[in-house]
TrEMBL record:
The keyword Transmembrane does not apply. Transmembrane segments: none annotated. InterPro entries: Osmotin/thaumatin-like_sf (IPR037176), Thaumatin (IPR001938). Residues 1-19 form the signal peptide. Belongs to the thaumatin family. Coiled coil: none annotated. SMART domains: THN. This is Thaumatin-like protein. Pfam families: Thaumatin (PF00314). It comes from Urochloa decumbens. It comes from the Eukaryota. Gene3D superfamilies: Thaumatin (2.60.110.10). Disulfide bonds join C29-C237, C77-C87, C92-C98, C144-C227, C149-C210, C157-C173, C177-C186, C187-C197.
Length: 282
């Protein structure tokens, strides 16, 4: 619990009571990532894109009245002072701030529709895979299951689907539809329905790594989830069982418990760790 409390403390999470829906984006990867939010705005998602260092998190308040969109991570990016640049995966053109632009496949997508009475959410690999990602609802009601990955498809990607960087390192795994562009793999034409587009060998491999994520277009039964009035923790490079925490209404709430703790108690626990971390860094 304590290391995750430290993570939340450093994230800049709000500490005043607020009924707004909260998204906490966490980077558990070993390198910097550049999360993207679309549609994003200056008040939600820092214009649709920002950098997030390893073990760092950021808290966003969803727009009032609901929101429907995607969150994903870009990798291997380099942006100049004007916010222009390139990414190895997930780029939305050349901009740091994606605004309403979609990411370039392959990219692992966290998708949301915030609505009443229930939200819909999922992790989709239909456009390919670039990072493990898990979506955890907290504070919600209903069957609020965790969506996402337990594995890293970059390590097991079939050679014909592998997207490689300079030097031959696999940075993402493309979808079979993206690579082969056939009706069978893209679930179109005579394969354009749930009864005529069964899983393929490629989508089964995606499903094995990410059991509660969309592996192909009609993978709804084990991949689409609903929850009422929840906050969401989106963690990159995490498996579905890893604990994660978020602040809401001035309390720390974690994904494996219905309990919550006042922020003042969390700070009392965190302060000794802050002192320890500062000593280590000197």
């Amino acid at each position: 619990m304590l290391p995750l409390a430290l993570l939340c403390f450093f994230s800049g999470a709000p500490r005043r009571a607020d009924s707004a829906r909260v998204f906490t984006i966490v980077n558990m990867c070993d390198t910097v990532i550049w999360p993207a939010v679309t549609p994003g705005s200056d008040s939600f998602g820092f214009g649709g894109g920002f950098a997030l260092r390893p073990r760092q998190s950021v808290v966003l308040r969803a727009p009032a009245g609901g929101w429907s969109g995607r969150i994903w991570a870009r990798t291997g990016c380099a942006f100049d002072a004007s916010g222009n640049g390139t990414c190895a995966t997930g780029a939305c053109g050349t901009a740091l701030k994606c605004g309403g632009a979609s990411g370039e496949p392959p990219a692992s997508l966290a998708e949301f529709t915030l609505a009443s009475p229930s939200d819909f959410y999922d992790v989709s690999l239909v456009d390919g895979f670039n990072l493990p990602v898990a979506v955890r609802p907290v504070n919600g009601r209903g069957n609020c299951s965790v969506a996402g990955c337990n594995g890293d498809l970059r390590r097991t990607c079939p050679p014909e689907l592998a997207a490689k960087a300079a030097g031959g390192r696999t940075v993402a795994c493309r979808s079979a539809c993206d690579v082969f562009d056939t009706d069978q793999y893209c679930c179109r034409g005579k394969f354009g329905g749930p009864g005529t587009c069964p899983p393929t060998a490629y989508s089964k491999q995606f499903k094995a790594a990410c059991p509660t994520a969309y592996s192909y277009a009609y993978d709804d039964p084990s991949s689409l989830f609903t929850c009422s009035n929840a906050d969401y923790i989106i963690t990159f490079c995490s498996d579905r069982k890893q604990r994660a925490c978020s602040y809401h209404n001035n309390r720390l709430v974690c994904s494996d418990s219905s309990r919550s703790w006042p922020v003042i108690s969390t700070l009392l626990l965190v302060l000794p760790l802050v002192s320890w971390a500062l000593q280590i860094s000197v």
